[in-house]
Amino acid sequence: MNHLQQIYDNNLAWAENIKKNKPNFFSDLSKQQSPEYLWIGCSDSRVVAEQLVGLQPGELFVHRNIANVVVPTDLNCLSVIQFAVEVLKVKHIIVCGHYGCGGVKASMQSTEHGLIDNWLCHIKSVHQKNEVELLSIDDETARLDRLCELNVIEQVMNICHTTVVQRAWRNNKELSVHGCIYTLETGILKDLNVRFDDMSQMNDIYQLRQAKKNVYIKCVN
Questions:
Q1: pLDDT tens digit at each of 221 positions of the chain
Q2: Which of 76, 84, 170, 195 could form a disulfide with 38 if both were Cys (CB 3.0 to 4.6 A apart)?
Q3: Is residue 119 part of a domain?
């Protein structure tokens, strides 16, 4: 028995339905992709990027991981950002978290979860940075939701600190980085009103300048 038969059947029905309404859809799509948006979101199966923003295949470039984290040493995520910015020429990078995120919740616990604890350390750092605010929230659900928001804001900042994004800004590329969060119970996105369009919005220590070319002086004996 093929345990994936339902998947294949669903795919066939989906493809046939699209071809019925737009006969040239797949042939046109196969020639190129030109999305304006890069979406960095959580791997949660309930947060399906294209569906919740009403975009079609080819309109949204997507990267997902546990708790929508952007780590400066994660070559996977950094490669996605570079491809999106330098090859696809996206105009917007969106970090989208969601309330009640299991990864964020796990980061708030002292229980060992295994390998993922190393990944969750990045969110624990967000908690530590905002500890005064978070510990002032008595309700556990409200505290979790606030950390989900703060985590999105932190990852927006991490994206802005990358050499890829700063190089794009130095070259006057139209590129904005945004943060939003999704409510599972309503299906609604909330704008967290965090947006960066150029380097001047960041702290000076994070603003990268183009390195000067090394000048070598040949010594003659």
A1: 578 999 889 989 989 998 888 888 888 888 778 899 999 999 999 999 999 999 988 899 999 999 999 999 999 999 999 999 999 999 999 999 999 999 999 999 999 999 999 999 999 999 999 999 999 999 999 999 999 999 999 999 999 999 999 999 999 999 999 999 999 999 999 999 999 998 778 787 777 777 666 555 565 55
A2: 84
A3: yes
**Structural domains in the chain (count):** 2
Beta bridge partners of 177: 93, 196
Residue 213 lies in a domain: no
The CA-to-CA distance between both ends of the chain, in Å, stands at 80
Q: What is the CATH number for 106?
A: 3.40.1050.10
Q: Which two tokens stand for residue 3?
A: 């345990």
Active site residues: 42, 44, 46, 98, 101
Please check whether residue 183 lies inside any domain of the structure.
yes
The kind and range of the H/E element at 65 are: strand 60-65
Whole-angstrom Cα distance, residue 104 to residue 67? 6
Are 85 and 194 in a shared domain?
Answer: yes
